[in-house]
Specification:
11-stranded mixed β-sheet, 10 helices, 13 strands
Length: 384
Amino acid sequence: MTKMFADAIRKATELTKSGRLKEATAFIQSTLKGGTDDVEPADQAVVEGEFTRIDKVDSEPVRRPGGIGARQRLSDTLLRLAAGGVPTSKPFLSPANNPLPDGAEFLSLSHTGMHGSRNYRLYVPSNRTTEMPLIVMLHGCTQNPEDFAAGTGMNLLSEEFGCVIAYPGQPIGANAQKCWNWFKPEDQVRGNGEPGLLAGLTRDVLRDFPVDSARVYVAGLSAGGAAANIMGSAYPDIFSAVGAHSGLPVGSAHDVPSAFAAMRNGSRGNRQTNVVPTIVFQGLADTTVNPKNGQAIVDQVAGHFTGVTKITEKQKTSRGRAVRTTRYSDHNQQLLAELWEVEGAGHAWSGGYPGGSYTDPVGPNASREMVRFFLEHRRDKTNS
């Protein structure tokens, strides 16, 4: 992050606060023309193959049209920066209260530890067993646990696959826009800040509910996706896999201005000491988080290995949307990462439900694909 760009952000914010929005927009657009370099793939030995398959990609049926994440204007972004938060998109939509299946629970719980306190919702399915997988879901900016649960439909999949789902909530007191603070250095490392807090919350669930400690996963949207990547890197002894939707690579920012730059221009992040299998969903029409960040997340994982095999398939959903899926495997043909690039999709959860914010019902179904990917990975407890 250059001093020039940081100064530009400060000046644009001052202009916005004084009501001179057009001047602020023109000023920052001029600065962005000299933005950061394009993201390039991490160096890795790969065997590349490309296949084309035109068929149906599984997606949940949707009975009514929903709100696809709208393109964000720069002026809207500036207004939110002036209000004291990382850029966000459409406002929170209150989800309907759907009745629970007999025997299921959607609990309101709280975690308190040395790194602070957070409230969270926990969905325990009706078809519970003695050792269930756990998925920790980190919402995006302006969202809350109930909204995220409604939009992703993860509770429905919990009933189908017998998973416990945890939804930590980020309060306004921690971030003005309820974003996870993925861009702060103190919230990017093990044993500190929000990573330490979320790890403690996860351990509470492991202690108090019949969860299989070898099948614990974390996923998130936007700021939550960036935070999920941090959790996988910081706590590979807890999490077996990560799901990042419209997120950013670990180490891509260190403050709000550099977060803005990474979101707009893309960032390669930092080379990681620890990685876990990761599935990434990224809309190619996303104007809030540059789609280059999706590739960068996968590069952080695949770049950790040598002899990686990369296979790409092109598909179409039942609604005609083009999808490019790239899978990365190691020399033992163990799946390391998947990148789902969705044509025409913006900053919204692919295949989500219109009962929640930031959802794109057209698909493909990110929730189902993430659960499928997660259940293919189990952590080796002997190496903990």
